[in-house]
Amino acid sequence: MNTVRERNDDVNVSTPAATDVAPGGPGSPAPPERRPRRRLLQESWLVTGGTFLTFILVFVVYSIWLGDRFASAEPRLLDAHQNVPVILLGMAATVGLIARQFDLSIASMATLAAYLTIGLSSKEGLPFFLVLLIVAAVAVLGGAANAFLVVRVKINAFIATLGTGGVFLGISEVYSGGTTFSPADLGRALPSWFSGPGSLGSFQGRPPAIVTWLIFAALLAGVGLWIAGRVSESSTRTRVAAGGAWLVLSAVLVVGLSGAVSDVPWTVILLLAVATLLSLLLGHTLFGRYMYATGSNEKAARLAGVDVERKQIMAFVMSAALAALAGVMLAANQGSAAANVGGGFLLPAFAAAFLSTVMLSAGRFHIWGTVLGGAFLAWVSQGLIVGGVPFTWTSIINGVVLIAAVALSSILRHRTGAA
What we know:
This is ABC transporter permease. The protein is mostly helical.
């Protein structure tokens, strides 16, 4: 009996296959298979690139509609700077979703981290390096608590993380007495490199231009390598066309953004660094392959020898750590911590995470898709606001985008699964 090796992300499973028999008899050649027209939607370039092209199209439409009010680089960089905590929370959600776990406590963890960052430094007077270590330890403990409840006690992840989220939020309220923490009121200023004019948390805090250009060049090279990997088994014509498209895109970006690259703030640089490290960890290591295998098919992953429980535990801990980093960046950006400051970021964070499944991907969660999804959400909302739509519509936009992303992801998963 022949066997066909079916690929389920990173876990291979052997299943029986019937022997091919031509319609004309055992000795007749089989006619060439005709692909139905509906399978056009399963072409990789259309599935993985269509949503990204839609993103570019929306940006172009806004630029034509609103002119320099939207197309200017500095306001869009400001949007990215202000949404760094949201995108970091989106990464936290993405890591959990890769392992098929929902962590609804990430917004509360961000709030707690913001309060601890301000309070331990300005109220308690602890050295800032020690403050960051304590925040990291709290994040690890919070993630471990989530993992214990879900992985060991077997409580549903929605219920468990909803409960721990309430605990994290309650701890921040008890510690702050329900008040806003501000260094000016607490008597000690935050480190000048961390918050304030020209600092890490300020839009005016920018690295030397050479650093930004090197990072920009590395990102372009990474895109080139990604494209090369996608078309490595394609025809020569396709590879040449893809290489030419990459060269044209690189030239356009270098010329068009030459005046804006030096204006990129430290916060965006930090975001790109975290995204790069996470992408390498999850996309190019055995740990990442096992994480995807765990989320794709837990039973098959177990049969393949993957320690599923450990990967789920690591997913919760990593999610909590990223959420805490988002809270630290909130403290740096705002210079204060307010009650449930991260609560409003939960919806856009999950919307960005689910957008990753249709942004340069066919139904698969990934980090760079979350970054692009977060930027897409920020710029779509901001473009409508610039165009005269009230700010109060932002939550509606985020909700609609989340529903659309989940629906499209489900369609793509169904179609590619049926291929």
